[in-house]
Amino acid sequence: MAALATNVVPLAGLQFDDKLGAAAGGGDTAQTGDGVFLVVANGDSNPHTVTLATPDVIDGDLAVDDREVTVPAGETWVVPLTNRYRNPSTGRAAISYDGVTSVTVGVFRVA
Q1: Residue 1: predicted pLDDT
Q2: Distance from C-alpha of 41 to C-alpha of 20, rounded to nearest angstrom
Q3: Pick from 27, 32, 25: which is nearest to 55 by CA?
Q4: Per the structure, how many domains does the chain have?
Q5: pLDDT tens digits for 49-91?
Q6: Which pLDDT value is given to residue 111?
Q7: CATH number at residue 66
Q8: What are the distances in angstroms from CA 109 to CA 14, 30, 58, 78, 80?
Q9: Coil, strand or helix: which one is 59?
């Protein structure tokens, strides 16, 4: 898994497309929190599904389903990375992809 760096978006704004990098075939990790989001650009001709692992459990043993987001072909989507996805052992979100062909990603936090 690759650790994605968080880009801080200042009040003046920020160009983001030059800060996206290739999605890792083995998945990525990222910071979580208020105002943190993942940008997923799918340049492929097929849709791709991004999965955010949800480490929470209810009643001590009932797992909360992971969040799956399908990004249509040729589109760029923004996905919030709230603390719901923060793994307590790593302090980061675990992100996986059904395919990484022509998929670029970046993590941003609003200042």
Answers
A1: 80
A2: 8
A3: 32
A4: 1
A5: 999 999 998 998 999 999 999 999 999 999 999 999 999 999 9
A6: 84
A7: 2.60.290
A8: 11, 11, 29, 12, 10
A9: coil
| Domain span at 66 | 2-110
SS3 content of the chain, % helix, strand, coil (to 5): 5, 45, 50
Strands annotated E in the chain:
2-3, 6-9, 21-22, 28-30, 36-42, 48-52, 57-58, 62-63, 67-71, 76-80, 93-97, 103-110
Buried b (16+ CB within 10 A) or exposed e, 15-30: eeeeebeebbeebbbb
Q: pTM of the predicted model, to two decimals?
A: 0.94
Question: Left, alpha or beta for 33 (phi > 0: left; psi -120 to 50: alpha)?
Answer: left
**C-alpha of 22 from chain center:** 12
